[in-house]
Design brief:
Elements lengths: L17 H4 L12 E10 L3 H12 L4 E4 L15 E2 L6 H12 L3 H23 L6 E8 L2 H16 L6 E5 H5 L9 E10 L2 H14 L3 E3 L6 E3 L5 E3 L3 E10 L9 H4 L4 E10 L4 H6 L5 E4 L5 E5 L5 E8 L8 H12 L8 E11 L6 E6 L2 E5 L5 H16 L4 H7 L9 H22 L1
Parallel strand pairs: 1-2, 1-10, 2-7, 4-12, 10-17
Antiparallel strand pairs: 3-6, 4-6, 5-6, 8-9, 9-10, 11-14, 11-15, 12-13, 13-14, 16-17
The structure holds flavin-adenine dinucleotide (FAD).
The site of flavin-adenine dinucleotide has 43 residues, from helix 2, strand 11, strand 15 and helix 11.
Length: 437
């Protein structure tokens, strides 16, 4: 059995992941019982719900978060831990937001894409959250056409004054950073970060709690009651609020009339090896998070105790893929042949919410009931950006909210039946295009 720093017993319902096995603190919030009154009731205890709760509590509002399972149970506590500067649907955003922002659109997107990093860094420092936060990414090219994209990103970063934080590497440059022969180049970006997402999410929940927020676990919201005084209803309780935020991403089935057909589950898989000892320094001496340029990509990094945490592929059928280790071992060994036969200690999968055009979706279900969802695999920074935007909107500053809410989204008819097959077909198409580039 490998030793893990400060082992804390995870709750039974947490997926048996590296993250749950290396928790700093397990939550034990009560189940909602009886009647509670607050300013804002938030449905969902992932990054969207918790980050918005912190923002609102910092602004002096009384907040309650209601979670079906445990804080961080969903994608927020099971992801790759890479805090990237992508808002996922950047290109689609640029096209649509030009209608509302005109020539300011490029500046708007550029500044927003780094806002999540600032929020996370400041929050970690302010509340003393121990989540293994580190800087440094490699965005790696596997063929010359990828290099063209990277060069364009690099040049934009230089134009925007990020020259101290980005370096363009050729194949030899990558080999000086990684014990892998797989790549023909990369951008090294020291503004991007990586971290232990479950410890961050729980740390933020505790920060919200310290500011007076109420948090309820094992409390599934079964209904949102709309009206002058909206409410969320669970089996045992009810929260009345001035405003409600639905932040359940792809895991809820509420408000189907308005939300059906907008967001679809894709299953992502991740494995974590046994601690690698000296080999960890050989394969990744600068402790960088790495992701490649493909449409369906591999992404990996080292954990604080020197394991390789490796994610890749994605199942767009919406069904779970069972043999994650069997799928990802060949990808690990192709990247790092020196890890052939390495022991895999943890494997898990989780659903992420995919939006057809990849623009995060936020809007209103009625005058005082809001929703915010759909980060298409780029949610750590983006949930924190959206948390700030939603908190501003709920407290009356609608400027950024309106820019996102004006974006148009494809609503797939018969979404629950047809959405995933359409998504799978779309992904196949893009992967074919990718192969031809
Ligand atoms: C395998 C994988 C790898 C990823 N890697 C990265 C990465 O490296 N970098 C990155 O930026 N992003 C990554 N992502 C995406 C990122 O994790 C998500 O976009 C983000 O965590 C979504 O946060 P959320 O709070 O909106 O949703 P979630 O974290 O899924 O939380 C939603 C919560 O709502 C609760 N809920 C749902 N319905 C109800 C209800 N009716 N009542 C009460 N509670 C309810 C659920 O139980 C759940 O806990 C990854 C995702 C996956 C799955």
């Amino acid at each position: 059995m490998n030793m893990i720093k400060q082992p804390v017993k995870p709750a039974a319902e947490r997926a048996p992941s590296y993250y749950s096995a290396s928790l700093n603190f397990e939550t034990d919030y009560p189940t909602l019982q009886g009647s509670v009154t607050v300013d804002v009731a938030i449905i969902g205890g992932g990054f969207t719900g918790i980050a918005t709760a912190v923002e609102l509590a910092e602004r002096g509002l009384k907040v309650a978060v209601v979670e079906t399972n445990k804080v961080g149970w969903g994608a927020s506590g099971r992801n790759g831990g890479q805090v990237t500067g992508s808002l996922s649907g950047d290109e689609a955003m640029r096209k649509q937001m030009r209608n509302t922002l005109g020539d300011e659109v490029d500046d708007f997107i550029w500044h927003l894409r780094w806002r999540g990093h600032e929020i996370i860094k400041n929050r970690v420092a302010k509340y003393g959250i121990d989540c293994d936060l580190k800087h440094g990414h490699l965005h790696a090219a596997m063929k010359p056409s990828h290099m063209d994209e990277l060069k364009a990103s690099f040049e934009e970063a230089l134009r925007r004054g990020m020259g101290d934080e980005v370096t363009l590497l050729d194949a030899a440059g990558v080999r000086a950073h990684l014990g892998s022969e797989l790549y023909c180049g990369a951008i090294r970006n020291t503004r991007n970060m990586h971290l232990h997402p479950l410890n961050l999410c729980i740390g933020e929940a505790r920060a919200a709690e310290s500011l007076g927020a109420l948090i309820f676990e094992h409390s599934e919201v079964l209904e949102i009651v709309h009206g002058k005084r909206p409410a969320v209803v669970t089996t045992g309780g009810r929260i009345e609020a001035k405003q409600v935020l639905l932040a359940g991403d792809v895991y809820h089935k509420l408000e189907r009339r308005k939300l059906k057909g907008l967001i679809f589950p894709a299953m992502g898989g991740i494995v974590t090896t046994a601690p690698l000892g000296e080999l960890a320094k050989e394969i990744n001496p600068q402790d960088l998070a790495v992701y490649d340029c493909r449409f369906v990509l591999d992404y990996y990094r080292l954990t604080a105790d020197g394991r390789l945490l490796f994610g890749g592929g994605c199942n767009y059928s919406g069904r779970d893929s069972r043999d994650i280790a069997g799928e990802l071992r060949p990808c690990i060994e192709r990247t790092f042949p020196q890890l052939k036969g390495v022991q895999i200690d943890f494997q898990w999968s989780c659903a992420m919410g995919i939006v057809m055009n990849r623009i995060p979706q936020l809007g209103k279900l009625s005058s005082n009931v809001w929703y915010c969802q759909g980060y298409s695999g780029h949610g750590i920074a983006t949930t924190h950006i959206m948390g700030e935007i939603m908190a501003k909107a709920i407290t009356g500053d609608l400027e950024q909210y309106d820019t996102f809410a004006a974006c148009k989204h494809i609503k797939v008819p018969l979404g629950d039946q047809l959405g995933n097959p359409m998504l799978a077909a779309g992904m196949w198409y893009y992967q074919m295009l990718e192969k031809m580039r």
